[in-house]
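Retry 2 of 3 after timeout on previous attempt. Resubmitting structure tokens to design endpoint.
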């Protein structure tokens, strides 16, 4: 299974809900860069995970938890061997762990012949994390609620993307906890982006009105993110933005050569960088 990364093209935070989560409105998009999850049946009933990033092996891994949840929900008793090849960095705002979980749910549903619908898998996924359901409605979708209520949008044309992540990661929980009501918005930035994506003739992606209500807070809490945005701009990106709660920042390019030049300039600058495109 391919477990693609995602970026948020918009992320409006509407307010804090009584359950402690924040109400969101976000346009999300999958990328070509992906983890790979290999699944094979294990009739002994064991559920095992191996991963080329040893720190991610264990019962907190979202792919493993997805497998465990699926068995609990269905009463299925056979096991599986999960082999995860990580290419998407963690604590990065790229949804890597969530995507691994979605891939595990989808793949094991098939491998174990459980016959659950996509909608049911997405509802199960929401119990593992707010970003998991999106991956069932990819490549392009509008997420609302705490992020778990998702509706597919018409797929975007192929857009070139440069990702740049500082060495440090970000705690999503800490970022949301630091938000103040003055930083909330009314969802109109996402509406403006949706109108732009529908425009005919289309606007080039480096001129889309991208936005992220978490960015201001993260820039203050994590100066490395502010420096990453500056580095993208210095390398030639006109409109860089942070994805999710960070720490990865990205820029969109209509032209592949422009994206390649920016990627090359960032390659010696420390941190992690990738040249990819929308799925
Ligand atoms: O849903 P997930 O486990 O990925 O969220 C991680 C943390 O981020 C939550 O525990 C919560 O503190 C915060 N969060 C939030 N509002 C959201 C999504 C996440 O406050 N819509």
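Retry 2 succeeded. Sequence:
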């Amino acid at each position: 299974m391919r477990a693609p990364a995602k970026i948020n093209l918009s992320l409006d935070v509407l307010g804090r809900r009584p359950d402690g989560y924040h109400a969101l409105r976000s346009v999300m998009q999958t990328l070509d860069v992906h983890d790979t999850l290999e699944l094979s049946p294990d009739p002994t009933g064991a559920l095992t995970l191996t991963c080329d990033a040893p720190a991610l092996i264990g019962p907190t891994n979202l792919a493993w938890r997805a497998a465990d949840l699926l068995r609990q929900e269905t009463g299925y008793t056979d096991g599986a061997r999960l082999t995860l090849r990580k290419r998407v960095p963690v604590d990065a705002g790229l949804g890597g762990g969530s995507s691994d979980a979605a891939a595990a749910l989808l793949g094991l549903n098939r491998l174990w012949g459980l016959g659950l619908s996509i909608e049911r898998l997405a509802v199960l996924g929401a119990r593992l994390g707010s970003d998991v359901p999106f991956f069932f409605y990819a490549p392009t979708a509008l997420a609302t609620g705490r992020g778990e209520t998702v509706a597919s949008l018409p797929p975007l044309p192929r857009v070139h993307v440069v990702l740049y992540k500082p060495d440090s990661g970000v705690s999503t929980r800490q970022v949301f906890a630091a938000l103040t009501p003055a930083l909330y918005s009314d969802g109109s930035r996402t509406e403006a982006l949706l109108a732009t994506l529908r425009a005919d003739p289309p606007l080039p992606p480096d001129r889309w009105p991208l936005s992220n209500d978490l960015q201001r807070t993260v820039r203050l809490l994590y100066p490395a993110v502010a420096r990453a945005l500056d580095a993208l701009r210095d390398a030639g990106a006109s409109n860089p933005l942070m994805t999710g709660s960070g720490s990865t920042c990205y820029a969109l390019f209509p032209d592949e050569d422009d994206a390649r030049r920016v990627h090359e300039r960032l390659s010696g600058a420390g941190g992690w960088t990738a040249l990819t495109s929308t799925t």
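Attempt log closed. The radius of gyration is 19 Å.
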